[in-house]
Amino acid sequence: MADLEMLAELENMKLQDTSRELDLVFVLDCTGSMGSYITSATQNIEVICQEIVQSEKLASPDCLRIGLIAYRDHPPQDTSYITKNFGFGKGSDVASIKKQLQSLYASGGGDGPEAVTAALKETLLMDWRPSASKIAVLIADAPPHGIGEYGDAFADGSPEGSDPLILAREMATRGITLFCVACEPALSGYSYALDHFRALSDITSGVLLPLTTAALLAHVIVGSALEQLDMERLIREVGETIAQKIHQGQESVDDVARQLHETLLLRNESTKQLRVEDIYRDTPESRHNVQTYINAPDLATARTQLKRVPGSRLTQKFLDSRYSSRGHLSLYPAPGPLRPPKPDAYKKARVERHKLNVDPKMTFLGSTTPTKSSADYGAMRDGSSPLSGFDMDDDDDRMEEDAEPFDDDPNSEKDTQIIAQDVQGQQIHFGRDPITFEQAKRITSSAAWRAFRASS
User: Fold this and answer.
1) Which of 146, 154, 323, 390 is 20 to 30 A (C-alpha) from 264?
2) Where is mean pLDDT largest: 317-331, 407-421, 438-452?
3) Are 403 and 437 in contact (CB under 8 A)?
4) CA 146 to CA 299: how far, in whole Å?
5) What backbone torsions phi and psi does residue 127 show, to the nearest 5 degrees?
6) With 0-12 CB in 10 A as exposed, 13-18 as middle and 19+ as buried, what is 208?
7) Separation CA 201–CA 364 (nearest Å)
8) How many CA atoms within 13 Å lie on the side-chain side of 163?
């Protein structure tokens, strides 16, 4: 049953900060295999900015700032550069942002793993606005150094000494949400990269988004930003209340998230939701690895506890479609900009499917352990997690909550519509639906991390 006290507080509470601001940073792998993703980001940057500003009714384009961090690898694996931090650019000056993107090209890389950790460190050093929603989108097809991959030239970790798990936890305390775009099928060819990036996303209350083609990149960037702005609205509204419940040591993150979910459903809360169809096999080894990364104090500790996943990481459905496809992209055109559809608009009529060839110039189409006391958070500075012991694996929670499977039924009663689908069968859905338990858990864990920073 929902917490009646929480419900009363929700109904009486108003946002103190009525401004809508977003700081959005692209963290982009610029090694030899990433050319199509660099091109996609460059070609679509104007419409990405336009869609976010218009869909969120931002007061002005400058309420949106776009940051860019490019990275390659450490010498001697790559001698061109390790990272390039272009800083933030105003949404009203998209031309300058596009010029920065145009200066990038794919080259080099050396061994498999890349300078991801150095790029995450640069992300923390960005001049984030305190009042803005903060989103980082990591676009990568290779893992950071030091996670246990074969042939890693820096097997002990990033040469500059940073640890990606500790950096992710610092991002969480600062309210920076990390969305990891997994460029497939390259990323799943590594032993632990997928699990590592999923853990980084979970720690920061973000989402791992698998992509099979760069043509879908603009869709997931805009969809992720719009969904996270809705999450931020709720975090600011209820964050203090739910963080107090966790810090009092009487309830676990999962318990508080369930109460929050029930409470928000009682008040008919709906949220914007991006759904990228999962193409990965669910295995016990993968779930174990994700939890290991989340709970380990540092990368060195996690590395000794990982388990290899037998067979392919990809589903048989994806493998079959990959071998039978010819690289075409099927799109479900949406009328106008990418925005949540009006109620019942897509229940009455299904948007007719059209098959189009990929155009390189294609633009964007419109058991857990409760935390006992604040003393338990003390190890944070050594890299441990204030959420250690809590099950943050999305797959388990979806099964526990009896959540519905990915639904592409044209007769579905949900308002989410398909906005894109590649020929390999991977679909992207976007729309407004009743808030999910997964979202409630992201809100709860994010509030707990931010409250930890405020109390430390």
Assistant:
1) 390
2) 438-452
3) yes
4) 7
5) -85, 70
6) buried
7) 25
8) 19
Which amino acid appears at position 59 of this protein?
A
Spatial CB neighbours of 209, under 8 Å, sequence gap ≥ 6 = 179, 180, 181, 182, 220, 224, 274, 276
Output the six-digit token pair for 374.
């604040």
The answer to whether the CB of 150 falls within 8 A of the CB of 193 is no
Give the pTM: 0.80
Q: How many helices (H) and strands (E) does the chain have?
A: 14, 11
Mean pLDDT of the chain: 80
Residue 322: the pLDDT is 73
Residue linked to tokens 């499917």:
353
β-pairing verdict for 133-140 and 176-183: parallel
Which pair of structure tokens corresponds to residue 275?
Answer: 């759904």
Diameter of the chain by CA atoms?
Answer: 60
% of the chain with per-residue pLDDT over 70: 73
Lowest-confidence pick of 193-207, 251-265, 337-351: 337-351
- For residue range 84-95, what is the model confidence (pLDDT) as tens digits? 999 999 988 999
Residue 425 predicted with pLDDT over 80? no
Look at the block and give the residue holding tokens 């935390």: 371
What is 291-329 written as a DSSP string? HHHHHSSSHHHHHTT--PPPS-SB-HHHHHHHHH--S-E
270-276: strand order across its sheet: 270-276, 427-434, 417-422, 329-331, 354-356
Cα-Cα end-to-end distance for the chain: 33
Q: Dihedral of CA 51/56/60/64: which sign?
A: negative
Burial class (CB within 10 angstroms; exposed 0-12, middle 13-18, buried 19+) of 164: buried
66: three-class secondary structure by DSSP: strand
pLDDT level of residue 108 (50, 70, 90 thresholds): confident
Backbone phi, psi, residue 69, to 5°: -125, 120
Give the pLDDT confidence score for residue 251 in this predicted structure.
80
Contact 291, 391 (CB under 8 A): yes
What is the length of the chain? 456
Parallel, antiparallel, or unpaired for β 417-422 and 427-434? antiparallel
Q: What is the pLDDT of residue 19?
A: 59
CA angle, residues 22, 220, 329, in degrees to nearest 5:
150
